[in-house]
Specification:
alpha/beta, globular, binds iron/sulfur cluster, pyruvate-formate lyase- activating enzyme
Length: 222
């Protein structure tokens, strides 16, 4: 099977850049520093001129939190961004957070997918907190970078899950083990949740690679 690079299907638009989390494996912080994108990555900034990028008439899927955490977004930023999202139902918009306990948000748009990132078992509570604090049509969970066997996962109400391993050359980098990935896959499949393994898992998972999309999520990239 040809391995698909998820970036060819889900494009990043970084209208907010910066994050108050301090994940030791953060590539966005390094990128922002390397290209002098912001003065201080720990202070999220809103780039209003990029709102026009949400107006693409071609059907595409976008991740809007590639360099931020949805929990850091102010109400004003959300209002301006979701107003554009509502006007562009041909596109799908994904968001991720590691701090659902800091969010209170309701959205009834069909093209909005809000999810949490989980890297360890202790972070599984984020899935419950997401569903308690955020009301939306589509929930997703990203296990990336997977740093241990997360054990039992509650996939109730989850529409899609992504699994990835840490990349780069960080000292102390943790590579996912096949059995950690298989544990998540087994439970997701039991609940009928589509699983997408990111391309970096190909050398680890071999012919057990799975790359499934949630119905209605992926639009063809023209
Ligand atoms: S949540 Fe994402 S953007 Fe924020 S520090 Fe962690 S990896 Fe970086």
């Amino acid at each position: 099977m040809a391995v698909i690079d998820i970036k060819s299907k889900i494009k990043n638009i970084n209208i907010v850049i910066g994050c108050t989390n301090r994940c030791p494996y953060c590539y966005a912080r390094c990128t922002a520093k390397r290209f002098h994108i912001t003065d201080n990555f720990s202070v999220p900034q809103f780039y209003e001129s990029k709102l026009r990028l949400l107006e693409n008439p071609k059907p595409l899927a976008y991740l809007l939190t590639g360099m931020s955490d949805f929990a850091d977004w102010t109400d004003e930023w959300k209002m301006k961004i979701f107003e554009r999202i509502a006007r562009n139902p041909q596109n799908q918009f994904l968001f991720l957070t590691k701090s659902p306990e800091r969010i209170s948000f309701d959205c009834d748009l069909d093209n909005v997918w809000i999810g949490v990132t989980v890297t360890r078992a202790a972070e599984l509570k984020r899935i419950r907190l997401l569903k308690e604090n955020v009301k939306c049509k589509h929930y997703h969970v990203t296990f990336e970078p997977l740093h241990e066997d997360v054990g039992e996962v509650n996939f109730d109400g989850i529409d899609w899950t992504v699994i990835g391993t840490e990349t780069g050359k960080r000292k102390g980098k943790i590579s996912a083990k096949p059995e950690w990935v298989e544990n998540i896959v087994r439970q997701a499949q039991t609940k009928g949740v589509p699983v997408f393994m990111k391309e970096e898992l190909a050398p680890i998972m071999g012919d057990k690679m799975i790359q499934q999309y949630a119905p209605n999520l992926i639009c063809e990239v023209k």
